[in-house]
Write a structure and sequence with these properties.
Length: about 350
């Protein structure tokens, strides 16, 4: 997600500041580069978090009040938008601009999601795009599904991530006082937004504090983490590549359904500046686009960037795998027919 899917603030790692501004080290032998150093503190915390989330899921379906369930879904949507419409599309890619009220709202949503501050999340996501599928990519998908989903949070960062971290320009985001405020007070704001308020508010309508904590806080938080991580894992593994067959990201509709339009990943990595993160014009699988468009109508979002159909079609015909609807099967180039057949074995002439 999630991003996407920046590690929560409690995930232990070495300080990025140690290598800030330094030249990249001499590449180590492959065995040394890929040596995993497990952070057992993180493993333990994630195990207990997921056990608590499973219990919270049980309470959600069996004991929680209906209004508590609705509130949990509402928090899930707000959390998701804090990542997708906020940290990702607004701040990491600057695909649209937001006025102060929207920036404050999305920062609150992002704090609710607890995937670290916007400044840290956007930095890692810019690393992911600049060095995609290399050792400088925080969740390098070429290292397997588990690693790109959650394993990257259970081990020390690869040295190349720290060596190249200084190449990411964050001056545009550091200039935003809202983001600086969130970063400065994150360890106070995060517990309040992510755990304390979601646990307290349901008690106002008679829900038990026990149910509220495990359902609205733990279960909701862990669920948002995992669906966000699917963008790093599943959306880099299973699906078509209609826009660029030479990269790992794919089009994955199920991921887009649960992560508000973020699963159209082959499009996104081909055109990362498009606020839609997809070619789709509708909202069926793109709740984030609906939210941004709504904010645009009330004047809180503006300068929405998109890609013209002409440019998309040209790119599809130049680098796509032949699965895009712009191609009639009989008219597609031979090499793209082969690529499409590999992606979709059942497809024949």
């Amino acid at each position: 997600m999630p991003p996407q899917g920046h590690p929560p603030a409690w995930v232990l790692d070495e300080s990025d500041a140690a290598t800030e501004g330094k030249d990249a080290p001499t590449p180590a032998p492959e065995a040394e580069k890929r040596k995993l150093q497990i952070v057992w503190r993180n493993v333990t915390l994630f195990v207990f978090l997921h056990i608590g989330a499973l219990y919270g899921g049980y309470l959600f379906f069996t004991r929680a009040m209906w209004i508590t369930k609705i509130f949990t879904v509402f928090l899930y949507i707000c959390s998701g938008l804090g990542i997708t419409a906020g940290a990702h599309r607004l701040w990491a890619h600057k695909s649209y601009k937001a006025r102060l009220p929207l920036r404050i709202l999305l920062t609150m949503f992002n704090t609710l999601a607890f995937q670290d501050s916007v400044l840290d999340w956007a930095r890692d996501h810019r690393m992911h795009h600049k060095y995609s599928e290399t050792d400088a990519d925080p969740h390098n998908a070429t290292r397997g599904f588990f690693f790109s989903h959650v394993g990257w949070l259970l081990v020390r960062k690869h040295p190349q991530i720290k060596a190249k971290g200084h190449t990411i320009d964050m001056s545009d985001l550091l200039a935003d006082p809202v983001l600086r405020f969130q970063k400065k007070y994150y360890l106070t704001l995060m517990p309040l937004f992510c755990f304390i308020l979601p646990s307290y508010i349901p008690t106002l309508w008679g829900e038990s504090l026990w149910n509220a904590y495990f359902v609205c806080a733990i279960f909701r938080y862990c669920y948002v983490l995992n669906v966000t991580w699917l963008v790093n894992s599943a959306a880099h593994k299973w699906g078509d590549k209609p826009y660029d067959k030479n990269i790992n990201p794919v089009e994955t509709k199920p991921v887009s359904l649960v992560v508000f339009g973020e699963g159209f990943h082959n499009y996104h990595h081909t055109f990362p500046w498009d606020y839609k993160t997809a070619e789709l014009g509708g909202y069926t699988l793109n709740l984030s686009k609906l939210f941004i468009d709504t904010m645009s109508k009330i004047g809180w979002a503006y300068d929405l960037k998109s890609v013209s159909p002409d440019i998309v079609e040209k790119r599809v015909k130049r680098t796509g795998d032949g699965s895009h609807h712009v191609w009639g099967w009989d008219d597609a180039p031979a090499e793209q027919k082969v690529a499409a057949t590999i992606v979709n074995p059942e497809k024949t002439e």
